[in-house]
Amino acid sequence: MVRNSRVQRRSVKATEEDVELQDVDVDAKVYMACILQGRRIGVAYYDVDTRQMFVLETWEDGNEQFPSVQLIKYQVKPDIIFTSTKMDDTFLAALKLKVGFDHAAVEHAEVHEVRVLRSSVFTYQQARHRLAYLWITGMDEDFTDKERLHLLNSFMNLDSEMQVRAAGGLLAVLQQKMLVGASDVEEYKMTPVQIESISELSLNGFLNIDAATHDALQIFQVDKHASSMGIGKEKEGFSVFGLLNKCVTLMGRKLLRLWFLRPILDLDILNDRLDTISVLQCSQEFLKDLQESLKHIRDIPQLLKKISSPSSRTTTKDWLMFSESVGALINIRAMFQVALSQRQQSQLPLSDLQIVRKILSSINEELVYIKNLVTGVIDFDKTSGEHTAPRIVHGICDELDELKNLHEGLPDFLDKINLLSQLSNKLHLSFVFFDTDSSVIIAGYLLRFGVRLHENVLECLPDFQLAFEGGCEDGFFYRTSKTRELDEVIGDIFHKVLDMEQAVLRELEKRLGEFSSTLRQAANVAAEVDCLTALSIVAHEQKYVRPVLTEDNILVISNGRHPLQECTVNTFVPNDAHITQKGRVCVVSGPNYSGKSIYLKQVALIVFLAHIGSFVPAEKAIVGLTDRIFTRIASKETMAVSQSSFMIDLHQIAIMLRHATSKSLCLIDEFGKGTLTTDGVGLLCSTLKQFADWELPPKVLACTHFSEVFNPKFLPKSENLAFYTMSILEPDDGQQSSGSIDDIVFLYRLVLGHAVPSYGKHCDNTRPEAAGVAPQILVRANEILELMTETKNIERLDSQQTAAKDQRYKTFTEKLLFWDDDKGDTHGFLSQVFSHSS
Ligand SMILES: Nc1ncnc2c1ncn2[C@@H]1O[C@H](COP(=O)(O)OP(=O)(O)OP(=O)(O)O)[C@@H](O)[C@H]1O
């Protein structure tokens, strides 16, 4: 019954969409859907031949050609791309662009079609609904909705909104064309076509990191505003981004965020960034000066948008910021020119750096012209306030100058007339001028009398006409032939001046529009300089070193540190990592609190930072290019599918096993502890075995408390497996442990070998105490542990209450034994016994 109603609901939706989807009359090999929201891009594509669907969520950097989209198109080669009606023209143009890496390739590139579908096809709810009822090979017919959703979640992350929306939109088209079936519609069940698999697409050229990994590694951390309701701006909390973000411009911050979101694999670009940091960090003085100049650069693209928009009015402040920004750009160029002339002899010439070339070519003479143009037109001295309309300098237009002179002399002129008129007829009258800004909507010159003119007087003055009375200048205001004459001769000078100034401003804005691409390019270069300056400052302050990036599939770190953790402890113990051909699956054991998780994360963070082009917290690091970092670290509630913590863990492992390649880095932190120990051991050992069986496994770092992993019956020996432990100092063998925290010294040092699993009681005695666990619980835990180790019976725990009860029962039993029914008083005996027991 329930099932039928669902079929009905679905059919209604299908007909609504059919209105538009009917038009999809193409026969293609590769169908793709691509949508954009803010800077997030969602992509899904389906290959008809292999019946595989791929999804991807990525970020764009604001470049109008959308390079990631072009890269995906180049990789996927779609015949048709579907997108939503809500996409803007720039994005549509980017989707339509033919792709190829040189002119000849573009010439010969296949033309693909771009079709726009109603935006509702791409809503998250509809998309998720469609995905939820999708038939994928391997799905059992008996699967419940929940089971199907769980399986789907192991194929793709249902929390990634954009990829879900793109996939849903694409499915609408595919279902319309009967290319794929849905599990809840009978007629589709007849169609044997199913999707073979759904996978997350790895974007060639990028180190792919999902949100869970960002979270686990604390790459970003947003703190809500401190106000109780969380209202207000969010700010970056204690995170790797927060640590490295020493940018001083908004554009720099945005770009650095993008570098963090999309670490790259291009060795040329990465090495160039590293070269730049090497050079810059040598001169702290230069870095300081550079940041001083950068601070004056505002969000140039935003200012340009305001300047070129016909609907928004610019203020003096906008022009001041614009002029200062251009001035600062010119200053930065000058600083590099001076540095270039001084550093010719140095080992790494500045002129070899890409960023220096960009500065010299993008911040060119045109910017000097722009700066002169703006300061030559806008009168920054003559403004009445930052938020008022800008004024124009003298000397731009003769007519405007004349009017301005007249307007400036107007108060004197009116005073003279007033004086004359008062002298001539001794009446309290004056010439006043109202403009439209005044509370009275009247423009022009009026004659003011302190009293209303009598009708007899007005009869003698036929050209006098009462305009109005009162107003802010108390009195009676008349138009006369003389005031009309004044209107005609000098008129509304103020507004004429404003109009003419606006016209000059529009001309200036138009002129600047011609240089908008130069300005944008210069702004992009400034953002890059800001990011590199920030990374150089951090590299110097935190004593990071330059990593060696290599195509070889290895990872060698000497004395690596955790960038965040080292800021929070007095002495941080550095550790090595050595992953080359053998022993790529590293199992790290050790007691609680011995530094296992920190070690895993620090290795991943060093790899991550190297792919941004940053120096890394280590003494030496050779980092092989990595395609993805996977994590099974802290379980986090997910909104897309209601899952238990253990289910989330399983999904993370499933995604890892499905998508990892030899070039991936996988972090597994205590997988299997969220279920029965036996099940957990089984799952962990089989996962590690699966990786160890590869010819060249991914680089795996797994930490665990399960001692079974050392038993070859559970985890067969393999040269791909390597065992490490976090060393601790225990009391000498002969010495009796008091079981206190002081007995163990955590050395936080990774060494080869196994951890003998006798740490339990030490750990139980140490950290839980620190975490506020009551001492009696710890004592009892120790007792149980010891009895279990010695395979003895665990006796009942005696308390005062149980002892009192025991005593009562004992007394009762004794009395019962000595009682003789023939001799005694039965009634008295019973009342005595029951009064005791009650
Ligand atoms: N290399 C190090 N140098 C100094 N202190 C460290 C180091 N590594 C870890 N620590 C300290 O030890 C604490 C615990 O580390 P971590 O969480 O990695 O332990 P763990 O072995 O993973 O514990 P558990 O098994 O309980 O998860 C950290 O919060 C930090 O204060």
TrEMBL record:
Residue ranges of the DNA mismatch repair proteins mutS family domain? Answer: 664-680
**Keyword line:** ATP-binding, DNA-binding, Nucleotide-binding
Q: Which domain of life is it from?
A: Eukaryota
- The protein depicted here goes by the name DNA mismatch repair proteins mutS family domain-containing protein
Q: Which Gene3D superfamilies match?
A: 1.10.1420.10, P-loop containing nucleotide triphosphate hydrolases
**SUPFAM superfamilies xref list:** DNA repair protein MutS, domain III (SSF48334), P-loop containing nucleoside triphosphate hydrolases (SSF52540)
Q: Does the keyword Isomerase apply?
A: no
Q: What lineage, starting at the top, does this entry show?
A: Eukaryota, Viridiplantae, Streptophyta, Embryophyta, Bryophyta
* InterPro entries referenced in this protein's UniProt entry, alphabetically: DNA_mismatch_repair_Msh2, DNA_mismatch_repair_MutS_C, DNA_mismatch_repair_MutS_core, DNA_mismatch_repair_MutS_sf, MutS, P-loop_NTPase
Family from the record: Belongs to the DNA mismatch repair MutS family.
Q: What is the protein's species of origin?
A: Sphagnum troendelagicum
Q: Name one Pfam family in it.
A: MutS_V
